[in-house]
Amino acid sequence: MTRRPATSISGTPILIGAVTVLIGVIAVFLAYNANSGLPFIPSYRVTAEVYDAAGLVDGNEVRVGGKRVGTVQSIAGRIGQHGTYAELQLKLDKAIQPIRDDSQVRVRPRSPLGLKYLELMPGRFGRAIGDGGRLDLRQARRSVELDEVLNAFDKNTRTALQQTLDQLGPGLAGRGLDFNVALAGAPPFVTHLEHVAANLADPRTGLRRALRSVADVVTAIAPVAPQLGSLIGGADRTAAALASVSPELAQVIEELPDTELTGTEALAVARPVLRDTRLLLQDIKPGIAVLPLAAGRLHSALLLGIPVLRRAGALSDRLRTALRAVERLASDPLARSALARLRRALDSLIPTLRFVAPAQTRCNYLGVYLRNLASSVSEGDSAGTWFRTLVIAQTNQFMPRATPSPDLHANPYPFTAAPGQHGLCEAGNEPYKPGQVFGHPAGVHAHYTEDTSPPPGVPGG
After folding, report:
1. What pLDDT does 37 receive?
2. Cβ–Cβ < 8 Å for 43, 70
3. Does the pTM exceed 0.90?
């Protein structure tokens, strides 16, 4: 009788197929959950607060120095005493536990298409955070988005850059060597500029008071802006007239040193006469009540003027050299061309000033901007000043959607009292109305924004 061999497990096709299917299911399950971490592997969970999730979604990576160390498990919006913010639940690898409470987080772009990740910058001196701990909002750092950079170059900015390049082209033509010399001196200039910037950042420099003084000067000049424009036009015509008579002007300048020398000699001869005049005034002092004060002032002027006149001879020699240099400049054939180009530059600048000047002269936007800029760096410590700002936004507009938000308000080009804008200071004075508002909102009647003058009793007020 022949014995039948026993059947092994590896020889059963059904069992082999079942094991293969089970392995495939396990592989698919692991691949599907790979972004959120493999199961049965210990993790280190931390809650992080950021100002804006900025396009993060569940499952995005958390990286340290470019290396993946975990994932974002969930994202939730919160409202606190500093406004709205996002709360992120992070699932991190045990290898980086623990992180410290002086660690910083920042939302960074992973690609230009909008994919993001959370960058974690571990601290070194803070307190260790245990499992389930929290990084508060103070450790969040803002990032500049690509669209914010591109939005800075709007239509008006591009037009202004084009006009600037059109004007710089003729101005730099034929001056390549001078431009190369300027570029060669740029590195030392930047080195010194760093020290200058450090000095300006020091509160002891009084930069805030300087900015307030500049605001006061601009405010004082604003009412006479048309007169300043007329003055520039008159100076252009005066320069053109002087250019047309440059030979005669050079002759007058050439004769000035001899004229001044003659005047100096005449004043030296008149000194005894002036002394006698002083004595005469002293003699008639009892009879003329109004002359004593005038005589005393004249006496002081003479005492101060005589030593100056004695030194005027040496000054005349220096003045002769300076006047000769002016004569050479006036006789230079390129001077007329330079003045003509200056006139064209001024003529092209006047329309820009007419469009830009009302933003400050009528609406005080520059004063408000400089005041807010000074306030934004008004606090700090021994290492420098801090940049403080507050973003106000609608939380329901953080996530992408197919249609504009029902309460979206957008006014990309508000009125700034420029010509043709009815003198309205629309930016900063838009009234809030329910629903969507695109473009210029109705109901703006403001012809000013905010007075930035110092209060009474404060220097400059």
Report:
1. 55
2. yes
3. no
